[in-house]
Amino acid sequence: MPWLLSSSLRRRTLAYQATGCPLRNTQPPKTALIRVGVTGIAWLAFSIAAAATDERPVSGDRDAIDFRALYEELVEIDTTRSAGSCTRAAEAMRARLHAAGFEAQHLRILAPAERPQDGSLIAELHGRDRSLKPILLLAHIDVVEAQREDWQRDPFTLVEEDGWFYARGVSDDKAMAAIFTDSFIRYRREGYVPRRGLKLALTCGEETPDVFDSVEWLLETRPDALAAAFALNEGASGELDASGRHVTLQIQAGEKVYQNFELTATDGGGHSSRPTRRNPIVRLSNGLAKLGAYRFPVQLNPVTRAYFEQQSTLSPAMATDLRAVLDGSDPEAAADRLWDANPGWNSMLRTTCTVTKIEGGHADNALPQRARANVNCRILPGVPVTRVQADLLRVLDDPDIAVAATGPVAITAPMPPMSAAILDPVRELATELWPGVAIVPTLATGATDGRFLNAAGIPTYGLSGIFHDAEGPRAHGLNERIRVTSLLDSRRFLHAIV
Fold first, then answer.
1. pTM to 2 decimals?
2. Could you tell me where the DSSP H helices lie in 140-232?
3. Do residues 64 and 47 make contact, with C-beta atoms less than 8 angstroms apart?
4. DSSP letter assigned to residue 31
5. Among 141, 172, 260, 342, who pairs with 475 as Cys (CB 3.0-4.6 Å)?
């Protein structure tokens, strides 16, 4: 399924050839099919077709086979918090970069002395103009826990089946980590020297930041390691329709911040045969019922406004309500209807706080002395945590229910600018690869390491070029997966966009 090169891509190819790196013969060798049993028919056939029109120099099936081996090695290294090692994965990727010609001084593995298994790899490809800050390519290599007895396949063995890859981390986030590492190798192999330098950061702890997060640690202790003009990160993907057509490509600019609050009601307790009016469980339950009925106000920003403008075209059945939110004619009622249609839309429109845990009482025959609940809030950019805490106290309307932030207080980070310098190259390349695809700016309602970088003044954009169907990649869940074609699409897109 080859793509045709447009005139602009041809111009870039000619410019690339002018640097002294002519395009090599991209016809697959006759011996390529011998390797089909190792690489998989879908993988080899698609990768050769894609390579045949790549604007970079390629060597037939060699690059694709090398990439699959790199991806497989990275995926199959256990990097869970409980039993794995990010350092081992970082060392494996460093060895591949070193073999490709990167000098040792440009390949650093950094970890706290007390956490030797939480290493991150920082690799650098210097540019022609050393006065320009580099582009940071960020991907985390730690993964969520996975129990073999729960999965249909071994979660730490890469399985290719019916056009899909299955394993823990195949999507989140070892896909981008493998692609960025592979691109560094290919840039070196091709003799490509960018005008602006490139920096690769394969980091640890994104999935368990309450224990340790290497991006946060690096910014505090080794700020030079991540210093950059801007960063590309996970946080956005693409959407396929039921027929497999590429519908939207998201680019994320900004994300909500994560903050837990503990709600506590207390009393002296006593014998259950003599109930009082101050039962902590009852008081806390009444407060939580009020909180469950409360809606934080709709609050648009430039990114979410652009997102819902696009959705009003892409989702005609909901266009009236989307327009009501956008023009402010009836935002709250319309937002409630949009919530029923898509909970993710509600999350993008407002700060949300929801009860996730509750406990109380100490004996079956005693009045409770304490009741607690955890409320998890996802807060819009620019909204202070203290304001949300004050809102919770106001909604609960009970001076005897204490509200305290738990864990580190969330970092309030500015949203990176969604400028033409970022959007135009994405739109140009995506349109050529996937004609008709809509470029949709989006706000992440979860959390990535971009929150630390944005707060440190490094604008960070989620951009993966990985397309999913309606079910998605099952990230954090059972039988995590990614389409083989989506992985290769992303590899080609990210290599070119960088």
1. 0.86
2. 174-190, 214-221, 223-226
3. yes
4. G
5. 172
